[in-house]
Amino acid sequence: MKHQDIIDKMTVEEKAAFLSGKGEWDTRDIPRLGIPSIFCSDGPHGIRKQAGAGDHLGLNESLPATCFPTAAAIANSWDVDLGREIGEALGEEASALNVQVLLGPGLNIKRSPLCGRNFEYFSEDPYLSGKMAASYIQGIQNQGVCACPKHFAVNSQELRRMAMNAVLDERTLREIYLTGFEIAVKEGGAKAMMSGYNQVNGIYANENQHLLRDILRKEWGFDGIVITDWGGSNDHVDGVKAGSNLEMPAPGLDSARQITAAVRDGSLAMEELDTVVDDLLDAVLTVSDEQKGKSGSFDKEKHHMLARKAAAASAVLLKNTDHILPLKSGCRVAVIGDFAVEPRYQGAGSSVVKPTRIETIAASIAEYDLQVIGISRGYKRTGEADEVLKKEALNVIEGAEAVLYFFGLDELSESEGLDRSHMRIPQNQIDLLQSMLQVNENIIGILSAGASVEMPWQTNCKAILHGYLSGQAGAGAMLDILTGKVNPSGRLAESYPLRYEDTPALRHFPSTERNAEYRESIYVGYRYYDTSKVRVQFPFGFGLSYTEFIYSDIKADRQGVTLTVTNSGTMDGAEVVQMYVGLPNAIVFRPEKELKGFAKVFLMAGESRKVHIPFDDKTFRYWNIKTNRWEVEMGTYRIMAGASVTDIRLETELEVEGTTSVYPYHPAMLPYYYTGIVQQISDREFETLLGYPIPDGRWSGKLTLNDAICQMYHADSFLARFIYRRLTAMKKKSEEKGKPDLNILFIYNMPFRALAKMTAGAVSMDMVEGIVEVVNGQFFGGMKKVIKGFFANLKANRAYEKRLARGKGEER
Ligand code: BGC
Fold first, then answer.
1. In the beta sheet, which residues pair with residue 555?
2. Using CA atoms, how far apart are residues 400 and 408, in angstroms rounded to an integer?
3. Sequence spans of domains, the chain
C-alpha cells in the first residue's frame, strides 16, 4: 500500500464512503485526515465545469471554455501531435477552472453509423482511435490533470445504454473493442478509466473481473483509478472486488453501507477494500498536489486559434470537380444555409461546452477576399418545408459564381441517449439543394455532421467539404480551406456506406431487447466493406487535397515500412500515409487488410521525403481463442501503403514467422466469417464463434432492478404502463420540437436501480425493490416496502453521517 499510514487511521465507514462521490462532480474529502476532494468535469472537447447546480447532461450552464472540434472531427486529422496540443490546452483549461479529472477522451468504436454518440468518438478503427486517444491523454496529463478515457468497454449503442448486454466473442472484444483502450493505457499512460454503463457478456463493465482485473490491471499494467459512468454502478461491492474505485456521482450512503456490511459478513475482504481505497487516495493526493499553485486563467485567444487550426486540419474535402476549389480571390459567392448563420458545431449531451466565443460564416466571411452577393438561411433546421426561405435562397444564388451551401445533420439527429433511426440528412435541406441546382450549377456543399451520412445527393454538388462538428472556430477554418489559405488534409476516420442497408451490424443494431449481439464480429466498418467487396460512397482514409502526392520506393524489413512521398503539385500540403497489413489465404479468418500504422507528412510543393512507419506489437497479431493469447500466424504478409483503404499506392511482401501451433477455428464451421459476408450470420454460426449458446435476452415476464424504465410496456401494473406511455409521449413531443430532451432520454433508458444511484441518498436500493414490485403489479406490498425503506434509509443515513463526522467506526 502506498498510503498505509492514512489507511490505518481510516474507519471502515470512511473507507466505504470515500469510494463514492460527494456531489454531482466531486469526491468526498476527509478533513480530519487531510484528504481533499477532487473535482471531475466533462468532457472530451472542452471543459464543462458547472459553477452552479450540477447535472450530468449539460442542462445547466457551465463556465466558458474553448469548444474544440469533437473527437469525430479531430480523428480525421490523423495527427497525434495536434491531439497532444489539444490535450494540453484542455488540461490547461481544466487546471485553470480547478478541475482535477477530465472525463475524456471517448473512444468507443463506431460499430454502426447510427450510434447517437458517434460524434464523441474517434473512429471505427481501434488503432487510429487508440493513437488519437493516447495523444489527448498525454497532453491533458502533461498539465497535471488526470484524463479519464471512456467508456470501458463495448459501449456502442445509446438505446437502453444503461441496461444493455453486449454479447461478443473474445477475439472481437480484444481486437476491435479493447485495442484502442490498450493503446490509451500503455502509450497514453491514462491515470483513470471510466467503466461503461453496459454489461459485457452478462456482467456489468464496472464489476467485470475479466475486463477490470485480468485485462486492464494485470495485462496492461494500469495502476490508476476506475470511475463508474454517472449512475452506472450496479453493485459496488462487486465493483470493488473487480478493482473499481469510485462510484459516481452521488449514490448516497446506501452503497457505503452495503460495502461495510460486506466487510462485516466476510464477503468482502478488508485487503480488497484497502487496495481500491489506496489507489483512490493516491490519485486524489497526487492530482491535488500537482494542481497546487496553478494559474486561474488561460489564454482564450490562443486556444481559439488552436481550435481553428484543429478544425482546418480535420476537415475532409470529399469532392472537387473542375477544381472549383479553392475559390478565386474576389469570387462572387452566395451563402446559403441556416448553419451559416447559426453553426452546428458540437453535439448534445454531457459533452456540451459553453464556448468562449463562436465564429459564424455569415460574420467571418467579410474578412476574406470574396464578394458576397447575399446570405440566406434557405431551410428550417428542424426539418419543416418553408417555401418562403427556399424562394429567398433561389433568388440570392442567381448570378453567383459559386454557391456556398451549409447544411447537414440537425440537433435532434445526434445526441447522447439517442441512436439515429436512419442515415439521411433532413429532406427539406436536400429539396433546397435540388432546387438550387436548377438555378446555379456551381454548388459547394459544406457539411456539418458528427457521423457518417448517406449522400445520394452528392452529384448535385461540384465540391463537398465535410467539417464534421468543428467547434467554436469552425467557420473560419472552413473559410480558410474554401479560399485556399489552408490546403485540406483531413482523411475520413470512418467509412461512408452508400446506404444504411449496406452496414454490417444492420440486423442487430440497436438491440431493442436485453442483449446486443455482435454477430458481425471483427468485420466493423472498412473491415467489412473491404473484405466482402461492398461498394461505399467514400472509403475509410479518403480525402482530397489541393495538391497531388506520389508514392515511390517501398521497402519493408522487420522494423517497419519505408517509402518516399513527393508533393508533385503546386501547393504546399500534408498527406496522410496509411499502412495496411493483410495475409492472403490466412488460416485464421481476418479482414482483407487492417490499418497498422500511419504518418501525417507536410510537404512543400515539389518536396520529397522518406517516410518510415514502424511496426509494433499489433502489426501482425490476432487473438487466439484456443490458446487465450495474442499470436502471429506465419506467412507472407502484404504490406501496403495507401491514401485510403481502397487506394493502395504501393505494396510489398514480408515473410513473418508465426507463433501459432494450435489453430482456433474449423473453417467449415464458420463459412461466413471466412468470407466476411456477415450481415446474416445464423444462430448456429454465431454460437460456434462464441463457443457457447446465445444467451436468452427475452423478458421472463417480470421486470427487474436492471431493466430500463422504457421497458415498462411489459409491466403488469396499469400505473407503470401509463407512466411509460406518458414518458414516450413526452419524448416524442420533444423530438417534434427539434431539440432532444436529455432528461427524458436519460430517464427513458435508465434502469430502475439508477433511482438509488443518482439521488444522493434520498432513495435506497430497498426502496427501489419496492418500486419494482409496484411495477410488477404488487401495489400494496411494493408500496409498503417503499415507505418502510424510506424511513429506514433516513435513519441509517443520519447515523452514518454522525459516525463520519466523529471519525469513529460503528459501535457494536
Ligand atoms: C456520460 C459520460 C459523462 C457523464 C458525466 C454520462 O451520462 O455517459 O460520458 O462523462 O455522464 O457527465
1. 562
2. 22
3. 303-517, 532-690, 709-806
Interatomic CA distance for residues 162 and 541, integer angstroms = 32
Instruction: Specify the CATH architecture of the domain 532-690.
Output: Sandwich (2.60)
CA–CA distance, 197 with 160 (Å, rounded to integer): 10
pLDDT in tens, 126-167: 999 999 999 999 999 999 999 999 999 999 999 888 889 999
- Counting atoms of ligand 1 from 1, which one is nearest the CA of 151? 9
Q: In the prediction, which pLDDT does 812 show? A: 46
Ligand 1 pocket (Cβ < 6 Å) reads 42-43, 56, 103, 150, 229-230, 350
Collect contacts of 772-780 with beta carbons under 8 A, ≥24 apart. 772/703, 772/704, 772/705, 774/717, 774/719, 774/720, 775/703, 775/712, 775/715, 775/716, 775/717, 775/720, 776/702, 776/703, 776/715, 776/716, 776/717, 777/715, 777/716, 777/717, 779/717, 779/719
Q: Coil, strand or helix: which one is 663?
A: coil
Best residue for ligand 1 mutational test, from 42, 120, 155, 749 (most atoms within 8 Å of Cβ): 42
pLDDT for 811 beyond 60: no
Q: Where are the beta strands (DSSP E) in 305-365?
A: 316-320, 331-336
Whole-number Å distance, alpha carbon 176 to ligand 1 midpoint, is 22
Q: Rounded to the nearest whole angstrom, what is the distance from the C-alpha of residue 648 to the centroid of ligand 1?
A: 39
Closest residue by Cα to atom 2, ligand 1, is 229
- Indicate which residues carry an active-site annotation: 229
Residue 728 Cα distances to 196, 719, 733, 743, angstroms: 25, 14, 9, 13
Task: Select from 56, 151, 195, 748 the residue to mutate for testing ligand 1; criterion: most ligand atoms less than 8 Å from CB.
Answer: 56
How many other β-carbons are positioned within 10 Å of the β-carbon of residue 422?
12
For the segment 682-701, what is each residue's pLDDT rounded down to a tens digit?
999 999 999 999 998 877 77
Q: For ligand 1, atom 6, which residue shows the shortest CA distance? A: 230
Contact 193, 185 (CB under 8 A): yes
Query: Rounded to whole angstroms, how far apart are CA atoms 614 and 637?
Result: 15
Task: List the helix and strand counts (H, then E) for the chain.
Answer: 24, 26
Domain boundaries 303-517, corresponding CATH code: 3.40.50.1700
Select from 57, 103, 353 the residue to mutate for testing ligand 1; criterion: most ligand atoms less than 8 Å from CB: 103
**Ligand 1, closest atom to CA 104?**
10
Nearest CA, atom 3, ligand 1: 350
pLDDT at res. 163? 85
Model pLDDT for residues 468-490, shown as the tens digit of each residue: 999 999 999 999 999 999 999 99
- Cβ atoms of 213 and 195 within 8 Å: the answer is no
CA 18 to chain centre: 28
State if pTM tops 0.90: yes
Centroid of ligand 1 to alpha carbon of 230 (angstroms): 6
Q: Which residues contact 286 (CB under 8 A, 6 or more apart)?
A: none
With beta carbons less than 8 A apart as the criterion, state whether 260 and 13 touch.
Answer: yes
Query: pLDDT for 160-215, tens place per residue?
Result: 888 899 999 999 999 999 999 999 999 999 999 999 999 999 999 999 999 999 99
pLDDT per position as a tens digit, 219-240: 999 999 999 999 999 999 999 9
**8 A C-beta contact, residue 21 and residue 101:** no
Cα(42) to centroid of ligand 1, in Å?
7
Report pLDDT for 217. Answer: 98
Higher local confidence (pLDDT), 281 or 746: 281
Measure the N-to-C terminal CA separation of the chain; round to a whole number of Å.
28
| CA 715 to ligand 1 center in whole angstroms | 28
Cα(229) to ligand 1 centroid in Å equals 6
